[in-house]
């Protein structure tokens, strides 16, 4: 029986079936979904939040998960505060999103929340409560993404736009156990959370206080079957001995360009798993997914209206029109998100080679070498395909003659890995490898061997425009 | 390593990497006839900054850009002082 994409998160999660067998596991505890049929994590105060604009600002992912399940369809607006939102940005968020209630597991926030009308604490303890979980609103979900400078951008979604790419409840005999390195208050993590709930599965949530190795062990101990991360998350995970303990059936990548090297590594590491890379962004929603374990995507996806998504390439960048794109930004001067034709510009530059499109980088990350454009990501893809390179980051270095040159920071494979002792011979070998694959202005002028690269809380390599 | 030998070794190295035919390196060789193009010089400047710790091309004290190889070496020698 086809299930509707209407209904609240709770009603759709229930409709996916087997509530009593399904759980959400955090680092500090777990909650059986069935318990929410008779109880609440919000004390007896759910009713107070009806029709309100609720900022969900918890320290723990699991408490946030419970609040989202309980409040969709009840609150008018849910604002998902990522764990690393700077406190000084709270007043802006509260004003711009007209927040009139705060849900948190942090007592400190109660005192420090300016102007919010009411504070409701939530906990992992589901207590019996009398209420009607009837849907009253098409709740707006507000996701925060970091702007290039300063204040966060607030992106407006609804459950239907967020869940547009998700097939409802499967009749699979085996229950799927999802997990992700992402925080569920970011788009990528939220997709997995919704997949678990709407698809009739369970989920292991990550924790910012846990090392990658410890998280992988916890996920492996629960028997996670479906796992999502950025390419950076996965490169990091594959360096951990705990990664061997995981036996996924499905490995998903999103959030950054999946180059051939990381796809090959994952395929070799998890031979039993389907390796899928998806294009998704907070603003453009889930565009498509590719399951052939090859970098890029088939050109045939462009121009076709498939499964409710239409894509085109204009001025070099990928544009997406679908019911999954965000509606608008809140509280900023930016224009509405989709253009007059309903397309959202992803800002991701693609290049057609043969029958396939490849991502070459972000429009705003271009390095200008004497008037010729270089996308850092295309150079990184070549560097990463060298057998001794684990990961790389390409950046601009100012140069009086060409304006800028390409420089690479490289983390090497192997135990020593670090900056020491690999010397000029290897630098020359890696540069030769680049020269064989890239036009000369794209080949790094120099390579710095480093022991690690900075990773943002989003699981992506930190990029600073030079 | 002296400034002179650092410069000469980078000229040879970059020419080889970039498949450029380098003219015989004499002091009076005009840089424009060295066989190296602007990308080659840009790379040399970057590498010399690593090796010598100076980039005279971005220094405000150096006003006249070098024309010959001897100028180029002196340019770096002055900056490295």
Keywords:
heterodimer, A: 466 residues, alpha/beta, Rossmann fold, GMP Synthetase, Chain A, domain 3, 2 domains, eight-stranded mixed β-sheet, seven-stranded mixed β-sheet, 11 helices, 21% helix, 29% strand, B: 81 residues, mainly alpha, Non-ribosomal Peptide Synthetase Peptidyl Carrier Protein, Chain A, 3 helices, globular
Question: Can you walk through the features of this model?
Answer:
The complex is a heterodimer of chains A (466) and B (81). Chain A is of the alpha/beta class and 466 residues long. Chain A has two domains: 9-351, 3-Layer(aba) Sandwich (Rossmann fold); 366-449, GMP Synthetase, Chain A, domain 3 (2-Layer Sandwich). Helices cover 21% and strands 29% of the residues of chain A. In chain A, helix 8 crosses helix 9. The longest helix of chain A has 15 residues, at 423-437. Chain A starts with 8 loop residues before the first helix and ends in a 17-residue tail after the last strand. The relative contact order of chain A is 0.09. The model of chain A has no long low-confidence stretch (mean pLDDT 87). With 81 residues, chain B is mainly alpha-helical. Chain B has one domain: Orthogonal Bundle (Non-ribosomal Peptide Synthetase Peptidyl Carrier Protein, Chain A). In chain B, 52% of the residues lie in helices and 0% in strands. Chain B is globular and about 30 Å long. The interface between A and B is medium-sized, with 16 and 14 residues.
Concise overview:
The complex is a heterodimer of chains A (466) and B (81). By secondary structure, chain A is an alpha/beta fold.
List strands and helices in order, with pairings.
The complex is a heterodimer of chains A (466) and B (81).
Chain A (H helix, E strand, L loop, with lengths): L8 H7 L7 E3 L4 E3 L6 E2 L12 E4 L4 H11 L5 E4 L9 H7 L4 E4 L2 H6 L5 E4 L5 E2 L11 E6 L7 E6 H4 L14 E4 L6 H12 L3 E3 L7 H11 L3 E4 L1 H8 L11 E4 L6 H10 L4 E8 L3 E6 L6 E2 L6 E2 L2 E6 L2 E6 L5 E3 L13 E10 L2 E7 L4 E3 L2 E3 L1 H9 L4 E11 L3 E10 L10 H15 L8 E4 L17
Parallel strand pairs in A: 1-12, 4-5, 4-6, 5-9, 6-7, 11-12, 11-13, 13-14, 14-15, 27-28
Antiparallel strand pairs in A: 1-2, 3-8, 9-10, 10-21, 15-16, 17-23, 18-19, 19-20, 20-22, 22-23, 24-25, 26-27
Chain B lengths: L2 H15 L20 H15 L16 H12 L1
Helix pairs in contact in B: 1-2
